[in-house]
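In this section we walk through a basic example: taking a raw amino acid sequence and producing a predicted 3D structure, encoded as discrete structure tokens. The instruction is simple. Fold the sequence below.
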Amino acid sequence: MSSAARIVSVSVEHHAESLGIGTSKPRLAWTLDAPSDWKPGNAEAQLEDETGAVTVAPLDARDEVLASWPFRPLASRERVAVRIRAVNDAGTERTPWSAPLFVEAGLLDPADWQARPVSAPWPETPGTERRPSRMRRRFDLDGGFRSARLYISAHGVVDGFLNDERVGDDTLVPGWTSYRHRLAYRTYDVTDLLVGGENVFGAHLADGWYRGRLGYVENLRDYYGDDLALIAQLEIRYDDRTIVIATGEPGWEATTGPILSSSLYDGETYDARVGDDWRGGEWVPAVVGDRDPATLFAPRSAPVRRHAELAPRTTTVQADGSILYDFGQNISGRLRLSMARTRRGEELVLRHAEVLENGDLALRPLRSAAATDRYVQGGGEEHWEPRFTMHGFRYATVTGWGGAPAELDVCAIAYTTQMRPSGSFETDNPLLNRFHENVRWGLLGNMVSLPTDCPQRDERLGWTADFQVFAPAASFLYDISGFALDWLDDLAAEQSPDGTVPIYVPWLPLDYDTSPPVAAWGDAAVLVPDTLHERYGDPEILRRHFEIGERWIERVRELAGDDLVWDEGFQFGDWLDPLAPPDDPFRAVTSTGFVATGCFAHAAERLARIGRVIGATSADRMQRLADDVRQAFADRYLGDGGLPRDDTQTACAMVLQWNLGASEHRPRVAERLAQLVRANYFRIGTGFVGTPLVLDALADNGHLEDAYALLLQTECPSWLYAVTMGATTVWERWDSMLPDGSINPGSMTSFNHYALGAIADWLHRRVGGLEPVAAGFRRIRFAPRPGGGITSAWTRHETPFGSASIEWRIGDGCLDVQLVVPTGATGWIDIEGIVPHEVPAGHHRFTTDAPLSYVAPMTLGRSVRA
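The resulting token sequence is shown next.
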């Protein structure tokens, strides 16, 4: 046994948590910390069941990041302890056993469900805002129970209580999924909340996404149903029996409570004078509904939880008596109020906004979302936070407080789907660091149950293009694997029979009854799984989702016709090109046919690569299709010398990064891109499609200085312009706020959109210098490209093998690089002035002359011309 090597973490599948998982044979993953001369081979797993019986089995860990479950399948509800120890490649040394990971299966068979939905019996008017209800069940228990689990979901959103204690610390359960196909349930260990004798289970319910107002069309409600219902199954286990308390059985009761209304968009109204007692009050028998238990599933993703608490940075009393709070950071969240003494019956009104305009809340960008909470005071000491709404805001006002501002304690609570942080990046450039933090905060604010476009206005949809362009950056910063895979399952469920992938998932009929097929948006079916495989090294992701990608490409093949040029039908194109008019973001300077056909070739190429990885029989056919589309693209859209006929930054970047032209023409296309960037005074000229490509297209083709000049520009439009304007998240538009502090006049503008922050992936790979060149970071390329006057950078990422990092500094004419390759991976050194070579796991240091590419920032003003 080796004392130097050790297992530092163990996990199952892509589950963020191991309680109530939805698979009987979860694959195992672990990270190993070992000396550089310790070469990992296979591993061993130990399973201890609830009887104390121990089983040891070998694990084949040589080729896969995740090893197959080596034991008998888990039964529903079964709980086991799993330990791992690694074996070196010679089989002569073993690590100590890891700490135990407790893994518990959820309800794996639809037959395990006894629960049926229960709702309030009183009549309601569909299509209107209705008062939320509460449910309860009283029951007696003998003492001596061993454990208890609560399995809970809802038509709507739910908070559960046992004996007046809230169950769990999450919110907006069960989250938003494609409800007709898939409804998540959560599992909680509630053993410590039960007592011998009388118990009361209670639940607050609200509309949420299920029957609440959704989208930007007028009054779209009840899309999934008009019943507000609780689905809950409480199982109390004794040594000799199990007692089940399930909704649908006699004894469930309903009433209302202090929440008078609750809307994700419009806010929540709460009357503290109304009782919230689970034992007293007037209750009526609930009515029983129906739900196919086969649609219930245990999510891989963790729930939505609070991740930060922000005190006000400034507090200002306005002329109208309202109190304006600046929390210093744009978030997705809610306010929490604490009051030592309140005035019974007086109402507090809480309004939220992302930015100020003329010193007051800028409400126009919210469109029809009221984003207003109301609290009717009950008298006495009170603490309150809305339960079932969510707002995107940095600023808030409270109106109606009769005391001194200091007597009202207000803080902002930020929420996100809980994800493990996995990446860091920092340089000696403060503006660039702030931009990177803006990307991080934008990710957190838009990962509330699903990857949304924005957290504040009457939209908050899972737009497919936004996520596919941002997935590389997101997967570096956080472990998004379970979160993204749950969303991809919804994408598969929503895919049309003809192969069309919706422009947002879950799908709602807003502008269209059915989603149109749109390039870059539908490509998420191919590109997101490919990105996840690249970052997490799991080929099962590709196998699971290959069919949806293949069906999408076949659909595009049909639309493109015999000439393979996709230039007909609706397209978003290079959405939000900065030259498009504020009220017509479709009018990008790069033609929609150019963008759509280029995306077709690129997505078909990526699908062919996926097919080769998993051994799909259609891989060669997809490659031939990609080659044919590339030729069709060149014939239609490239002119003399391979230059794109659309003379734009996006067009040149697409040709270069997606190999849409002949290789001998690359220098000329790259030079033309650099000319366009210089002619625009190093300001950005790309939208959704071109933005993730343009810096790579410059830097990888001999124009690194131009790439840095574009990156570090502070005039609008640019990445850093928003930072100079005080932004704390990435904006939807390059000019969401104009230089004079006024808001873009278009009807669509948000101050928290992550799509244009996709370029953070370039910061990690090229400024920091850390990227995978084999799936799962099994082989890591260390390739920093210093420039722009930046003298140091530090980048770290938690790979499936452990922590990889690189830090470089320039001083006294030298470049000093220190890096760490995790055990089980290898590194490839690609640093100017050093012969490229491979290095093993461990710490490494290199020193060389400062590269010629290291220069002071280029002149970014209008004196620079092509």
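Looking at the output, two observations stand out. Residues 592-614 form the longest helix (23 residues). The longest strand covers residues 323-342. In the next section we compare this with other chains.
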